[in-house]
Amino acid sequence: MPDTLDNPDDLVRAVEACLFAAEEPLTREQISAHLGDAEVKDALAALQEQYAKRGINLVERGKRWAFQTAPDLAHILRREKDQLRRLSRAATEVLAIIAYHEPVSRAEIEAIRGVQTSGGTLDVLMEAGWVRVAGRREVPGRPVIYATTAEFLAHFGLESRKDLPGLVELKASGLLDPVDDAYEDLMEQRSAENAEPELEPEEAQPDEAEALADEFDAEMLEKPDESA
User: Fold this and answer.
1) C-alpha angle with apex 126: 122 to 127, nearest 5 degrees?
2) Higher pLDDT, residue 165 or 61
3) Phi/psi-derived region of residue 7, left when phi > 0, alpha when psi is between -120 and 50, beta in every other case
4) How many CA atoms lie less than 13 Å away from 194 in the CB half-sphere?
5) Above 90 in pLDDT, residue 146?
6) By percentage, how much of the chain surpasses pLDDT 70?
7) Is residue 228 part of a domain?
8) Cα angle at 158 between 110 and 134, to 5 degrees?
9) Which of 5, 82, 91, 154 stands the most exposed, by the fewest C-beta atoms within 10 Å?
10) Of the residues 46, 76, 106, the one at which a domain ends
């Protein structure tokens, strides 16, 4: 590591320069590697605080760091009129299920929803940049599994999936509808059978998945044609 980065202030400046020059968001490990394996955790925290009240903010999305326009100023920079797009009910349900249960296969999505899911619904979510193919499950047939993306986190202002609304929050906001008994029975049966050990049962919260679908379905999702 260069001698100039021994000074904390110089390290902060170096991290700032590294992020400005990057073509895409960087993980902490990538930033550290660019700067001779320097420990950059404190420098990132200092930069985030410095930019908190400025026109540009330093944000972490999916464990990747980047500068972005302050949310309250974004409308000033838009050159084109926003095109309002509304996801279908099926798409919002699938997106919610993936967000709370990922990684999840198409068959697992269908088991949770109780109906077939068309390939077109998943294509819409992948075209929006919110869902990605996350590999294949190591079971007979090796089905494709899906997960959310960093763009999903950025669009909804989430630092990580841990920031998804919880059961208590959804009940308090009035967004949580009663879950169908058959759906509840299905999830209990799947848990008892432990059919898919690679999933993370502690994160699989069906009430929250259905509620998030309702939340997404209730709002207009904005996606600008062209942004500055």
Assistant:
1) 115
2) 61
3) beta
4) 2
5) yes
6) 67
7) no
8) 40
9) 82
10) 76
Which of 224, 218, 227 lies closest to 87, judged by CA? 218
Q: Is the Cα torsion angle 163, 145, 155, 93 positive or negative in sign?
A: negative
- Tokens coding 221: 């999702």
Host domain of residue 94: 83-223
Alpha-carbon gap, residue 179 to 131, rounded angstroms:
25
* 64 assigned to some structural domain: yes
Structure token digits, residue 28: 């902490």
In angstroms, the CA 54 to CA 207 distance is 38
**What does the pLDDT read at residue 180?**
42
Six-digit token string for 198 = 């690679």
Contact 178, 218 (CB under 8 A): no
- With tokens 């898919």, the residue in question is 196
HEC sequence for the chain:
CCHHHHCHHHHHHHHHHHHHHCCCCEEHHHHHHHCCCCCCHHHHHHHHHHCCCCCEEEEEECCEEEEEECHHHHHHHCCCCCEEECCCHHHHHHHHHHHHHCCEEHHHHHHHHCCCCCHHHHHHHHHCCCEEEEEECCCCCCCEEEEECHHHHHHCCCCCHHHCCCHHHHHHHCCCCCCCHHHHHHHHHHHHHCCCCCCCHHHCCHHHHHHHHHHHHCCCEEECCCCC
The pLDDT of residue 228 is 40
User: Do residues 114 and 219 both lie within one domain?
Assistant: yes
Q: Are residues 91 and 59 in the same domain?
A: no
| Residue 81 tokens, joined | 């009129």
